[in-house]
């Protein structure tokens, strides 16, 4: 990482440090947090600033609220969860993100305390990257720390706009994400294997284009595989397909051959006769799925094929679940591959879409080298893009 981090800030005692965290956690219908990986991931940076006596201001988004009245998107439950991890730290929640009430709360803040702002996306100015709004945010602090890797692919006020008005550096989580994912694609321990799953091939095109240039093995399962199989003339029944991308998939198959990339498409699948936990289940070859049946998971032969490649890999990047893991009977393939990654001695990274949450759900979170907290941000890194929330930070040699 060639960007300055909080280590570059010489003295933050009693300084107002605004940390943009990504506490956009998944919640169930009742608003209970179902996975707090992102909160835990931000603790190192928060504790570092608190230990140094900074006045810490935390800012995050949660979901996609349409207006301030969308109260189910309030960050209050997140603050309660954070309190459990920061015993003895005074944390005050303020019901707004900018303005008089916030300014007053900031002025009352002491070193070693936290002020937590309300959902920044309650303001439409945030996503519009409005200059006035960015200035208002910047005026709240002496230093800005971006630790929100999961939002770094967006040029919003709290991720990019603010950096124009206040000295800005990266937090530890941001540093770790960029370092691990960056190294995995720039100088991977070989062979490099990238696994593609998830619902739609269209979301993964840019990643696939980049990965074709750098990977030794590409494994395709999940909903992505059926467009490839149809492109080769296979019968895919009712499985998810993108008919606009048949030529693209043919192109990928040809390019992989030309560039000597080992492209492995799922050869069999667990199919259902409908979408749901009560579906009847049958195993088919992916190229011979009968009409009325839909492939919802990779089958046992595919699991073995993928496991053989995984066992010989130096670095493995996994983007997208290999089946409909929300339904137990279609989660087995993803679980088997998560276990194979957990047992592997390779550098193992779950990034992109729901992959990290899937691995965590199987209880294997601490068995992989890295679970990326940023689904889309990690995909954009794998596409080879520079993230706006990173590009705008100070350079590594700048000590402030
Ligand atoms: P993504 O956000 O692209 O990683 O997609 C994640 C979603 O892909 C999950 O909700 C899975 O249920 C879904 N998925 C995985 N495999 C399939 C499949 N074979 N058919 C339909 N959906 C799938």
The biggest beta sheet reads: 6 strands, parallel
Q: Which regions have little confidence, pLDDT < 50, spanning 5+ residues? A: none
Q: What is Rg?
A: 23 Å
Bound molecules: adenosine monophosphate
Helix content, binned percent: 25-40%
Distance between the termini: 18 Å
Name the average pLDDT: 96
Strand content: 15-25%
How many extended strands? 17
Strand order of the largest sheet: 3-4-2-1-5-6
Structural class: alpha/beta
Inertia-based shape: elongated
Helix count equals 15
What does this entry look like structurally?
With 400 residues, the chain is α/β, with parallel strands linked by helices. The protein has helices spanning 37-41, 43-51, 76-85, 100-108, 124-127, 131-138, 172-186, 205-214, 225-231, 246-258, 300-311, 332-343, 355-361, 375-382, 388-391; strands at residues 16-20, 55-59, 91-94, 114-117, 143-146, 168-170, 192-196, 217-220, 235-236, 262-265, 268-272, 281-285, 288-289, 294-298, 315-319, 347-350, 370-371. It is built from 15 helices and 17 strands. The strands form four sheets. A six-stranded parallel sheet has the order 3-4-2-1-5-6, with helices on both faces. Strands 10-8-7-15-16-17 form a six-stranded parallel sheet, with helices on both faces. Strands 12-11-14 form a three-stranded antiparallel sheet. Strand 3 (91-94), helix 4 (100-108) and strand 4 (114-117) form a beta-alpha-beta unit. It starts with 15 loop residues before the first strand and ends in a 9-residue tail after the last helix. Bound molecules: adenosine monophosphate.
């Amino acid at each position: 990482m060639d960007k300055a981090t909080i280590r570059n800030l010489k003295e933050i005692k009693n300084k107002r440090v605004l940390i943009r965290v990504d506490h956009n956690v998944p919640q169930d219908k009742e608003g209970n947090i179902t996975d707090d990986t992102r909160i835990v991931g931000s603790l190192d940076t928060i504790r570092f600033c608190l230990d140094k006596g900074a006045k810490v201001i935390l800012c995050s988004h949660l979901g996609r609220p349409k207006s301030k009245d969308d109260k189910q998107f309030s960050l209050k439950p997140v603050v309660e969860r954070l309190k459990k991890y920061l015993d003895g730290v005074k944390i005050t929640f303020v019901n707004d993100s900018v303005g008089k009430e916030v300014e007053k709360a900031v002025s009352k803040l002491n070193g070693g305390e936290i002020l937590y702002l309300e959902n920044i996306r309650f303001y439409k100015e945030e996503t519009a990257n409005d200059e006035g709004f960015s200035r208002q945010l910047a005026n709240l602090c002496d230093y800005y720390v971006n630790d929100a890797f999961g939002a770094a692919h967006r040029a919003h006020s709290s991720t990019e706009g603010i950096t124009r008005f206040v000295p800005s550096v990266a937090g530890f989580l941001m540093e770790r994400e960029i370092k691990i994912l960056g190294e995995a694609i720039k100088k991977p321990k070989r062979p490099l294997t990238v696994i593609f799953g998830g619902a739609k091939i269209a979301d993964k095109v840019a990643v696939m284009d980049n990965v074709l240039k750098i990977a030794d093995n590409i494994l395709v399962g999940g909903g992505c595989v059926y467009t490839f199989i149809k492109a080769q003339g296979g019968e895919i029944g009712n499985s998810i397909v993108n008919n606009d991308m048949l030529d693209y998939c043919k192109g990928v198959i040809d390019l992989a051959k030309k560039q000597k990339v080992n492209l492995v498409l799922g050869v069999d699948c667990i199919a259902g006769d409908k979408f749901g936990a009560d579906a009847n289940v049958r195993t088919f070859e992916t190229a011979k799925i009968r009409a009325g049946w839909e492939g919802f998971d990779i089958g046992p032969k595919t699991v073995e094929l993928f496991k053989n490649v995984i066992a010989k890999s130096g670095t493995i990047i996994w983007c997208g679940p290999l089946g409909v893991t929300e339904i137990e009977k279609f989660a087995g393939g993803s679980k088997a591959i998560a276990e194979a990654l957990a047992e592997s001695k390779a550098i193992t990274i779950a990034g992109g879409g729901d992959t990290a949450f899937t691995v965590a759900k199987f209880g294997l979170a601490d068995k992989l080298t890295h679970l990326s907290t940023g689904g889309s941000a990690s995909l954009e890194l794998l596409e080879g893009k520079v993230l706006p929330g990173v590009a705008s930070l100070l350079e590594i040699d700048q000590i402030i």
